[in-house]
Amino acid sequence: MRSIAKERINADLYRALSNILMTKVNHPVLRGATILRTELSTDGSVCDVYVTDHLEEFRKATGFFRSETAKVINLRRMPRLVFIQDKGQENADRVNELLAQIARGNKQ
Questions:
Q1: Which SS3 state, helix, strand or coil, does residue 36 take?
Q2: Residue 47: predicted pLDDT
Q3: In sequence order, what are the residues at sequence separation of 6 or more whose Cβ sits closer than 8 angstroms to the Cβ of residue 74?
Q4: CA distances in angstroms from 23 to 9, 20, 90, 96, listed in the order given
Q5: Where exactly are the structural domains of the chain?
Q6: Does the pLDDT value for residue 9 go beyond 70?
Q7: How much is the pLDDT for 57?
Q8: Phi-psi region of 54 (alpha: psi -120 to 50; beta: other; left: phi over 0)
Q9: CATH top-level class for 3-107?
Q10: Degrees to nearest 5, angle at CA 86 with 34 and 26
């Protein structure tokens, strides 16, 4: 798949999934979650969907998200959605904590 087409489909998937989460999901736990980004595989068969939290609930609703996305995006073959918890913010907080500890240690 050409990279321009892949990026366009990736952006469409992100927009569609985010919109579905905001407008069509009634589950109270998922309403507080956020889809951070999507990454479409090279062949377009799998889309990794990075979420902030509530990974199990997203995984249980995979079929719902895939079918709702297929209604919005016209693709020959809808990719399989794989939900992954993004630990980026958690890791950044840990690094900041370690840097603060180092700074406190240097002042003594």
A1: strand
A2: 97
A3: none
A4: 21, 5, 27, 35
A5: 3-107
A6: yes
A7: 94
A8: left
A9: alpha beta
A10: 25
Please check whether residue 37 is in contact with residue 48, taking contact to mean a CB–CB distance below 8 angstroms. no
Q: Is the pLDDT of residue 64 over 60?
A: yes
**18: burial class by Cβ within 10 Å (0-12, 13-18, 19+)?**
middle
Helices (H), 1-108: 3-23, 28-31, 55-60, 62-72, 88-107
Q: Average pLDDT in the 33-50 region?
A: 94
Structure-block tokens of residue 63: 């079929």
Cα within 13 Å of Cα(83), Cβ side: 21
| Dihedral, CA of residue 33, residue 63, residue 24 and residue 4, to nearest 10 | 80
